[in-house]
């Protein structure tokens, strides 16, 4: 039976693909406190996205769900990806015009 990729390989794929898709973006580990998303991405146009990377088949823990909801309530986008295909889909989505910041300065 083939082994599922580890979270670190998905995370490395995410970082590599983000650098390619958004060369001027900043992608940082977000180690503020336990259960916060793994990465914070500062994108062109003032966009800020949080990403939790999981190994395939793993769900967010309850405290991670709360952290994602808290960030979303502040107006930030927060995503969970658990495969290289999901990473690719998320990055393609972030490159579209449909992906806009939720905070408009109002």
Describe the structure.
By secondary structure, the protein is of the alpha+beta class. The protein has a single domain, classed as Trna Endonuclease, Chain: A, domain 1. Helices cover 36% and strands 20% of the residues. It has a four-stranded mixed beta sheet. Helix 2 links the parallel strand 3 and strand 4. Helix 1 runs parallel beside helix 3. The chain is globular and about 30 Å long. The termini are far apart.
Highlighted features:
globular, 106 residues, 4-stranded mixed sheet, alpha+beta, 3 helices, Trna Endonuclease, Chain: A, domain 1
If helices are DSSP runs of H or I spanning 4 or more residues, what is the number of helices?
3
Indicate the structural class: alpha+beta
Shape: globular
Largest sheet entry = 4 strands, mixed
Q: What is the total number of structural domains?
A: 1
Q: Summary?
A:
Mean pLDDT is 86; it is low at 102-106.
Tell me the layout of helices and strands:
Elements: H1 7-21, E1 26-29, E2 39-43, E3 47-53, H2 62-73, E4 77-81, H3 84-94
Parallel strand pairs: 3-4
Antiparallel strand pairs: 1-2, 2-3
Helix pairs in contact: 1-3
